[in-house]
Amino acid sequence: MKRIVLTGPESSGKTTLTRALAERFHFPCAFEHARLYLEKHGPHYDCDTVHDIARGHLLHQVQQVPATVSMAFFDTDLQNFLIWCEVAFARCEPWLREAAAAEKDHVYLICQPDLPWEYDPLREAPEGREELFEKHLAAVRATGREYRIISGSGRERISRAEEAVMTLLGQP
Q: Which DSSP string do the residues of 29-75 spell out, in sequence order?
C-alpha cells in the first residue's frame, strides 16, 4: 500500500485536500482521528490524552482503509502526533517515535499555511503556523520519505496537489 499523507499546521487545508484528492483519484481516505476524538470528548487534553488519541488514530486508519487497498489518502499520520507532543509538552513516549518510524509506506503532501486561519473551537494557534510548518517539513525530511509542498488557494491549491500526487505515483 502507498499512503499519501496530508500534513502541516492547523487550518492549512489538509482535510479539504484529502477529500478532493480521494474524489479525484477514486481512492479511499481516512480523515483526522484527533478531530473526531476531540469533537466527542471536548477540546481539553494532556500529554497522555494525545498518546491515547494517537493509538486511536492507528485503529481508525485501519477501520477506514482496508489493508487490501493499494493506495489511500490520509489526513495526518503519527508524525503529526510527534510534533503535537513536542510542541505542547516537550516530550513524547518512545512507542510513538517507533511507530511513526515504522510507517515506511508514507509519502507526503505538506500543506503550507498560506491560507487565512479559520476559527474552529478545536483549533488553538492562529499565530505560529509558519513555525509549525517548518517543524512538519523538518520531521518529514528526517524520515527520508518523498514529499511535495502544497501552496496556493482554492482550485489552484487542489490542482497543485493533484500534480504532486501524479509525481509521487510516478505518472506524467
A: EE--HHHHHHHHH-S---HHHHHHHHHHHHHHHHHHS-TT-SEEEEE
Confidence (pLDDT) at 14 = 96
pLDDT tens, residue by residue, 19-32? 999 999 999 999 99
Domain ranges of the chain: 2-168
Can you point out the beta strands (E) in the chain? 2-7, 29-30, 71-75, 106-111, 147-150
* φ, ψ of residue 124 in degrees (nearest 5): -120, -30
Topology annotation, domain 2-168? Rossmann fold (3.40.50)
What value does the mean pLDDT of the chain take?
Answer: 94
Q: Which residue has the cell 499555511?
A: 113
Longest Cα–Cα distance of the chain, Å, equals: 45
Joined together, the cell numbers standing for residue 113 give 499555511
Compute CA distances 137 → 44, 52, 64, whole Å.
27, 24, 26
Cα–Cα distance, 34 to 161 (Å, whole number) = 23
